[in-house]
Design goal:
Blueprint (H helix, E strand, L loop, with lengths): L1 H27 L11 H4 L2 H18 L4 E6 L5 E7 L7 E6 L12 H6 L3 E5 L16 H17 L4 E7 L1 H9 L9 E7 L5 H11 L5 H16 L8 H5 L6 E6 L7 H10 L15 E6 L7 H4 L1 H15 L2
Parallel strand pairs: 3-4, 3-5, 5-6, 6-7, 7-8
Antiparallel strand pairs: 1-2, 2-4
């Protein structure tokens, strides 16, 4: 009987390890799943079709403009690469635009707007994406420190640099996670988070339960064991709300109220958490925040849902922070 119990226990352990690794491999290893990430509703929507068309036009725009291929080294020795589009007239203004999970060119949607404003634009490939090195996806946590390196690159080129950070989806979570890092250069004067999640753990559980129809906490817990072992970070620690709670620069949060991939309430939760407060309960001097809701917009599609409003609010924010 004891051998039966031992065999059963071993089988459960092996099965659990296998389930966890499958989840880890498909979610957090480079190239582990379909490049087009999102809910079925999002990918079938007219907005998503419009976004794909927009990205085609942005690629055409990039093909007509000069850019430089640039490189930095991450804190853990990876070569990270980006396209750098210099302003037509020498400028100390920079925008670092961060793409989402298993994405690439969606960080180019604001490229023409930034270029027209005379801003130098850095379009990085996140670690484990595109031309950058790395096997494991950082889910905004490891990537937050990579953002610091791009800001330092801008400072090296322009010692008096002023930089704005913008990111979409996981890219939004990335720039928000970077917001309170002590090593984030003082040249960062504003941060824009478009539909970023409030917690990697919360986001993964939501997707597993609502898109895959599997037990979310169990799958993510098992996958996290492999994440800690191989990728060397803990998904439970990727608490973006805790990060923005210590932010001291102006922030803008953007979210579509029909987002069924990173739910609208996650965006509101993140907004409510943002802002470093002093002993008197007031926000630190220089901090401000705003939440922009896009009616009817699905995940990562606020720009195409209402392009005029999106660009207007971005321009107003950039005017406010002096970029």
């Amino acid at each position: 009987m004891i051998y039966v119990i031992i065999a059963a226990a071993a089988a459960v352990l092996i099965l659990s390890a296998a389930v966890g690794y499958i989840f880890f491999k498909t979610s957090l290893i480079r190239g582990g799943s379909d490049k087009s990430i999102g809910s079925d509703g999002m990918k079938l929507s007219e907005q998503w079709k419009a976004m794909l068309s927009l990205l085609d036009s942005r690629r055409e725009w990039m093909s007509r403009h000069t850019f430089e291929s640039i490189e930095v080294e991450s804190f853990d020795g990876l070569k990270l690469r980006a396209r750098f589009f210099p302003a037509e007239v020498e400028s100390n203004k920079y925008a670092v635009l961060i793409h989402g999970y298993k994405g690439s060119d969606e960080n180019s949607i604001l490229l023409p707007l930034m270029h027209e404003r005379g801003i130098n634009v850095i379009l990085p490939c996140n670690r484990a994406h595109g031309d950058s090195e790395g096997k494991y996806i950082g889910f905004g946590w490891l990537d937050r420190l990579d953002v610091v390196m791009w800001c330092r690159w801008a400072e090296k080129r322009s010692p008096d640099a002023q930089t704005v950070l913008w990111g979409v989806s996981m890219g939004g979570a990335t720039v928000s996670a970077a917001s309170s890092e002590d090593i984030l250069p003082k040249s960062v004067v504003g941060i824009i988070d478009d539909c970023g999640y409030s917690s990697a753990w919360e986001q993964m559980v939501y997707v597993v339960e609502n898109s895959m129809h599997l037990p979310g906490k169990l799958c993510v817990s098992l996958g996290n064991l492999w994440c800690r072992l191989l990728a060397e970070y803990n998904l439970r620690n990727v608490d973006i709300c805790a990060q923005v709670a210590n932010c001291s620069v102006p922030m803008m949060f953007i979210h579509g109220n029909k987002d069924d991939f990173v739910p609208f309430e996650f965006g509101k939760k993140l907004f409510e958490a943002a802002g470093k407060k002093g002993d008197d309960g007031r926000y630190t001097d220089g901090f401000s925040k705003q939440f922009v809701e896009f009616d009817g917009a699905v995940h990562a599609c606020s720009y195409v849902a209402d392009t005029e409003m999106y660009e207007q609010r971005i321009n107003e924010f950039l005017d406010t922070i002096g970029i």
